[in-house]
Structure formats: C-alpha cells, structure tokens
C-alpha cells in the first residue's frame, strides 16, 4: 500500500475517525437520549409547578380637586415625596405586607400529600377549616399537623414536634367544637371528607409577622416601562390563586394607605386651625357682649367723623399686629416641632396661616420630603444602611437651616411689631382728645372688628382644608389586577429540549474526548497519517493459543495473509543490490513488546520454508528467550552462547519439524547482549549464515525500548516493523518516521497485526489496559464493557 503520509496533518484530530465511531456507537446515542428524556419526564411529572403572578399600578402626582398636600406643601413637594423609587420601597415594606395580610385568611395553610408531591390546598380546595384564637397564651406557629379522620367521625392530630405531639396524644376531637390544649384554643370544621380517603391532610399555623417578611422579600417591583408613572408587581409561588389574592390585597391596601396619608395631612391642618379658632372665638364673644352693653347704656351712640377716622387707622394697625402675632405663634410651633423627633405627617406648612416667606416654605418642603423618604426607607432597610445615614445627615442640615431662618424671621417680626406698637400708641394718643364715651366705643369696636376679621380668616382656611379633604382621591390606580403571567417551572418543552441536547451531546463529547486523548493506532489510515512507510500486509486476530498458526491451519486466512507478506518481501529484497546467491536478512522488530513480533517472525519463517527455500529463524532478542517447542526445538544453547565463544555454529543451529526451517535460539541470557550483537563474531556469523541459507528471519528486540534492533536493521536486506491494532502508540510511529527522515532506517515496511476487519470497515473502537513494559506482554481479553466502548 502506498502511504498518504502528510507531516502537516499528522498531529490533528481525526474527524473521520470520530464520525466512524459515532456511527458505530449509534446505540449509545439512542440509550443516552432515552435516559435523558426519561429524566426530563420525571422532572416535569414530579416537580411542583411554580408560577409568575403580575399586576400593575399607576402612581399619579396630580392634585385632583385641590388636595390637602397641595394646600399645605404645594405640588412640587408632593411630587417629590411620591417618586417611583420611594413607592417601590414602600410596596416592599413589611408594614404594608402586614396590613394586606390582615385582610386575608393566610394564617392557616392546608396541604394534601400526594404520592410524591405535597400540594397546598387553598381557599375552596381546602378539605378543612381551622379557626384559632390569636391571643392564645401559646400558639404552635410554624408547626405542621397531620389530621386523621376516625371511623366515629372524630379526628386526631399528630405532629413531629415533640411538645405538641405529647399534648395532643391520642385524643379524639369533634369537628365544629372548640378545644383548649396547653393554652391553645382552636376549632376545626370538616369541609370535604373525600381527600382523607386516599391522601394525608396537613395544616400549619402561620405567624403574620413571618408571613409579611416572606411576602415582602419575595415581591419584585419594577418600572412599568417608558415614561409611564406606573409600577409592575411580580410574585412567584406554587399556589397561583393564593398569590393572586395577595397581590390584589396588597394593591388595595397600598391605594387606601395613600389616601389615608393624604387625608391625615388635611385632618392635621383642620385640628391646628380649630385650636386657634377656639381662642379667638372666646375673645370675640366676650368683646361682642361688652359692645352690646355699651350701646345699651349710651343709647346707640355714633362716632364723630374724627373718631371714625382715628378708629379706622387703629383698626388697620391692630389687624397687621394680629397677623404678626399669628406668625409668632407658628414660629413657636415650628421651633417646638424641631426640638422633637416628630414625623412629617404632624408638621403644618407656613401656607396654612398665609406666611409666604419663600426661604421658610422651601426649607419646610425639604424637611417634609427628607423625613418622608427617611421613614419609607427605614421600614425596608437597616438603620446602618449608607443611604439612610446620608439622608439623616441631610435632614439635620435642613433642621439647622430652619432654626437659623426662624431666628431671623422672629427678629424681623419683633422689629415690625415694635414699629406697629409705636404707631398704635400715637393713634391712641389722638383718641385721648375725644370725649370719654366716644373713646370707650372706639376701643370696644376696634377689638371686636379685629377678633372678627381673624375669626373669618381662620374659618376661611378651615373651609379650604375641609374641601381639600373631601375632594381627596388616592393617587394610586390599579391598572391591571393580578393574574398568572407564566409557569416558570417546570417548563416541559424546554426540559425535553435540554434533555435531548444533553442526551445526544454526552456520548458525542465522550467519543470526541476519547479520540482527542487517543494515542493508539486503529486503522490503516492512522498508519498512513503518521508514517511514510509502505504497508507490507495485514494479519488478522489470532484467537488460538498455538503461535504456529500456519502449521495448524495451512489453508486459513491467517496463513494466506503470511503468504501475501512473503510475496511482498520477495519483491522488496529483489530490489536490493546485494551479492547474487547470498541469503537475504529479514529483520522483524516493533516499538514495544506485545505487538506480535515473535508470532509474525515464526510464522513468516515457516511460510518461507514451505516454499522450498532454506530458512533460518534467529531469536536475536537475547534478553527475552523464546520458546520454540512448537517447532520441535528444545536446545538451551543459542546465539548468546555462540557470540560469547562457548559454542560453535553447528552446535547452536537446530532443526525443526519443517524440513527447510532451522532455528538459532537466543540461548542463555547474557549480561551484555548489546555488545555481543555489535561484536565482530556477530558480523562473521551473518556472513556465514548468508552462505548457508536463502532467508534469515531475525526476531530482534523492540526498537522503542532498546537500540539493538536499530543496529541489526542497518545490516538487513528488508525490515518489517510490527504495528498492532489498538495497541501500538502513535508516538512510536512518529519517532520511526523521524528515523526514516534522518536516514537511519531504510528498506522498511509495516506489517499491521491483530487486525479486526470489522473495525476497519465500520469504524473502530479501542480500549486501554495494555502495558508498555518490555517484559510484560498483555494477552488479557477485553471485558465486555470495553468491547462495547
């Protein structure tokens, strides 16, 4: 066979071999895919489904109809406090979750145990109804109870919790009747007896705080998308009906909570104004009584023109001073507020009393905004959170600025009041020039009109606050009620697809990895890939114990294979330029022991001899003497004895059962076999043997381990290099190719041994377990699993 060796491709993985292996191992793919699909079926069948529940709410910042927040703080402040980020945090607070859960019947969870899965029975699916006193001294929260239905229509309770299992013992209870056990008061009503017939029914009591914490942490809140002022709420769970009810309750609680906060602002405003009205109302009633009494005593006296003018001037000044006094009261209120850790819901804005100082209004707005954000964040995060620490620092800075601003405003207010008091005193001095009765009327009427104007002003502000409260609507609109968006686990089609990919991918990856790590010769293509040597022939697998197969089966395919090798060797040696009439030296070698070198040398020598040519089989591997008993040779003397000078040539040459075949055994194991093969006596021996025999077949040591074989290959007429299928290492062929390219090896051909022809036709398999050691040949039969793989 002509070699197709290509040095540039000899190191790459053989994809054709991978394809052949894939085709030959098709059953692995079928088996692996079937197992993977069955595993996917089990996952789909026995995994408790998990669903994704979603809903949407819109958070509007519009002050519909003039809300209390708009009245007190203005639109800018209120919009800042209702930012989507803060609303997202508020929706995820445990406080809001707790309020929502108070409106739901979640304090008892019911379960029905199937063959594999434990399923929750919610709402109308529950077979029982458990009611218990939440104020009981000792309630078994987070304890799972199993309820058994007795034949006498009573029930018994069992649990793995030792304390409560001992408490209930073997007691029987009647449905619908209340019981008290260890301070725990409860009643159980039977709704559906059917589940008890085939399944185990269980229930567990839930503490609302724990439920609120779990639902709050499991809720996902994200922007609705685009520029919409809306949020999408997402919850995942195994009981879709229950999660839908929770999300709907949460959104309704959130909506009502928003309205309650807005109404609280208006209520606080009304309460503040009512306090001021109470004081002014008492003063107004008293002054009104004095005015009536005075008019009765003085017969409805009227003011003179001068008196009316002076009275009007004093009244105007008194009105201005009253407004300043009202501002003073607010400044005192605000100063007192800043000295306490009050919530933003309790503060009243300057606009309530008509105080329009822009700096004060801005600082109060910032105070309310920061306090609101801090309260919301504190409900969902730890006090040591960096964001909360920063907001707390900002809040203190605003408080400090407010104190400084209040101090400045009070100083300015005091200065204005002193000026007004001076002007009032001047006007009052003019009143002293009027008659006594007219002065008294002016003073009483001045106080009455002043109190009346303040009363009207406060009543107007109170009416505005009341209208704002009545017109309040929640800024939260439920866009979409909760519904099931998707089943997120298990996903049958996806699982089957993944299983199929894995099922087909694993055997392919296994085959590819084996080929990637493969270092053995398996096919004729492998030989051509790693060396340029021609193929001398192929010898099939020998399943018999006798090595002289040609003698036992002269017409077998094995014998015919060696005849083909004999013919090819004659052609090779006919091309040699040796002296006519001299015998031909054939060196049989291999890379390591166990590749069939001795087996092939013996059978090749036999095949040559039966053609009538004088043939000598030389066992040149003196380190490992061969047994030639199958040829009828039993002599212990041999090559080593001759080369050492302890025996003559005729004494070591042995006849065999075949007329034209002689054997030169290896002899005793010498201490220096390499030196003996390189000695002059060896050269003389070769020359003599060429005269006596037509063919000298030399069984030499492996060249992959020892250099002896390489030395003998230099003097041979033809070299046969043994390659055993699934055994010879690729690197040895690469090294041999390097020897050829360097000119150290000539006139050499490959004999492919132990060939399984089915592998050559349908692809190949290979196994490990062969040793590379020279003195340990591996004749082990492959186990069944290696034959499969």
Automatic annotation (TrEMBL):
Swiss-Prot/TrEMBL keywords: ATP-binding, Coiled coil, Kinase, Membrane, Nucleotide-binding, Transferase, Transmembrane, Transmembrane helix, Tyrosine-protein kinase
Residue intervals of the AAA domain: 584-703
Membrane spanning residue stretches: 26-43
Coiled coil regions in record: 392-419
Limits of the Tyrosine-protein kinase G-rich domain: 438-515
Cellular component terms per the entry's GO annotation: plasma membrane
One Gene Ontology molecular-function label: ATP binding
Cross-referenced InterPro entries: AAA_dom, Bact_polysacc_biosynth/exp, GNVR, P-loop_NTPase, Wzc-like_C
Pfam families recorded: AAA_31 (PF13614), GNVR (PF13807)
The EC number(s) this enzyme carries: 2.7.10.2
Substrates-to-products reaction catalysed: L-tyrosyl-[protein] + ATP = O-phospho-L-tyrosyl-[protein] + ADP + H(+)
Family statement: Belongs to the etk/wzc family. Belongs to the CpsD/CapB family.
Protein name, UniProt field: non-specific protein-tyrosine kinase
């Amino acid at each position: 066979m002509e070699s197709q060796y290509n040095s540039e491709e000899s190191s790459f993985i053989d994809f054709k071999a991978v394809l052949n292996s894939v085709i030959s191992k098709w059953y692995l793919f079928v088996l692996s895919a079937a197992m993977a699909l069955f595993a996917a079926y089990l996952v789909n069948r026995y995994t408790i489904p998990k669903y994704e529940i979603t809903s949407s709410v819109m958070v509007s910042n519009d002050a519909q109809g003039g809300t209390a927040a708009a009245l007190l703080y203005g639109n800018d402040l209120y919009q800042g406090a209702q930012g989507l980020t803060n609303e997202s945090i508020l929706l995820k607070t445990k406080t809001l979750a707790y309020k929502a859960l108070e409106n739901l019947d979640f304090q008892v969870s019911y379960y029905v145990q199937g063959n594999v899965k434990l399923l929750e029975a919610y709402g109308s699916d529950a077979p029982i109804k458990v009611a218990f006193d939440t104020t009981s001294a000792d309630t078994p929260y987070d304890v799972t109870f199993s309820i058994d239905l007795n034949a006498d229509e009573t029930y018994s309770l069992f649990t793995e919790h030792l304390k409560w299992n001992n408490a209930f013992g073997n007691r029987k209870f009647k449905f619908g009747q209340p019981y008290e056990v260890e301070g725990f008061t409860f009643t159980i009503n039977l709704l559906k007896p059917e589940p008890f017939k085939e399944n185990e029914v269980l229930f567990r009591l839930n503490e609302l705080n724990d439920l609120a914490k779990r639902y709050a942490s499991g809720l996902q809140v994200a922007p609705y998308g685009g520029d919409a002022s809306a949020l999408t709420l997402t919850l995942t769970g195994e009981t879709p009906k229950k999660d839908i009810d929770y999300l709907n309750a949460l959104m309704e609680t959130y909506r009502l909570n928003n309205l309650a906060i807005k109404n609280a602002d208006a209520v606080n405003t009304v309460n503040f104004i009512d306090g001021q009205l109470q004081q002014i109302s008492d003063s107004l009633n008293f002054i009104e009584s004095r005015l009536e009494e005075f008019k009765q005593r003085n017969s409805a006296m009227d003011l003179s023109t001068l008196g009316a003018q002076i009275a009007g001037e004093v009244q105007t000044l008194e009105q201005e001073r009253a407004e300043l006094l009202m501002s003073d009261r607010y400044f005192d209120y605000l100063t007192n507020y800043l000295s306490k850790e009050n919530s933003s819901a309790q503060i009243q804005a300057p606009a309530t009393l008509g105080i329009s100082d822009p700096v004060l209004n801005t600082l109060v707005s910032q105070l309310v905004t920061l306090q609101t954000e801090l309260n919301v964040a504190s409900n969902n995060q730890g006090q040591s959170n960096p964001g909360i620490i920063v907001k707390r620092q900002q809040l203190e800075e605003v408080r400090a600025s407010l104190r400084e601003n209040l101090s400045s405003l009070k100083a300015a207010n005091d200065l204005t009041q002193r000026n007004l008091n001076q002007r009032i005193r001047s006007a009052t001095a003019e009143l002293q020039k009027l008659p006594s009765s007219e002065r008294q009327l002016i003073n009483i009427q001045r106080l009455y009109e002043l109190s009346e104007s303040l009363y009207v002003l406060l009543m107007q502000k109170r009416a505005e606050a009341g209208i704002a409260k009545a017109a309040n609507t929640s800024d939260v609109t439920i866009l979409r009620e909760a519904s099931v968006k998707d089943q997120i686990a298990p996903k049958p089609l996806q699982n089957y697809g993944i299983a199929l990919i894995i099922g087909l991918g694993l055997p392919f990856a296994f085959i590819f990895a084996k080929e990637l790590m493969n270092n053995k010769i398996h096919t004729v293509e492998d030989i051509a890939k790693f060396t340029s040597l021609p193929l001398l022939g192929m010898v099939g697998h020998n399943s018999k114990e006798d090595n002289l197969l040609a003698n036992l089966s002269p017409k077998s395919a094995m014998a015919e294979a060696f005849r083909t090798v004999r013919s090819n060797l004659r052609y090779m040696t006919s091309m040699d330029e040796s002296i006519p009439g001299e015998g031909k030296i054939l060196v049989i070698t291999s890379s390591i022991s166990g590749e069939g070198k001795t087996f092939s040398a013996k059978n090749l020598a036999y095949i040559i001899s039966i053609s009538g040519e004088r043939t000598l089989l030389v066992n040149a591997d003196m380190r490992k003497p061969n047994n030639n008993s199958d040829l009828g040779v039993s002599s212990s003397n041999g090559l080593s004895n001759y080369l050492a000078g302890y025996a003559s040539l005729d004494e070591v040459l042995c006849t065999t059962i075949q007329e034209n075949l002689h054997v030169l055994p290896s002899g005793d194991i010498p201490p220096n076999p390499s030196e003996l093969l390189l000695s002059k006596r060896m050269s003389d021996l070769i020359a003599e043997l060429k005269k006596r025999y037509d063919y000298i077949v030399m069984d030499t040591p492996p060249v992959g381990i020892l250099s002896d074989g390489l030395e003998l290959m230099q003097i041979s007429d033809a070299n046969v290099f043994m390659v055993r299928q699934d055994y010879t290492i690729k690197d040895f062929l690469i090294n041999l190719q390097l020897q050829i390219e360097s000119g150290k090896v000539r006139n050499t051909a490959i004999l492919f041994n132990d060939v399984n022809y089915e592998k050559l036709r349908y692809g190949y398999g290979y196994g490990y377990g062969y040793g590379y050691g020279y003195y340990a040949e591996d004749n082990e039969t492959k186990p069944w699993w290696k034959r499969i793989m």
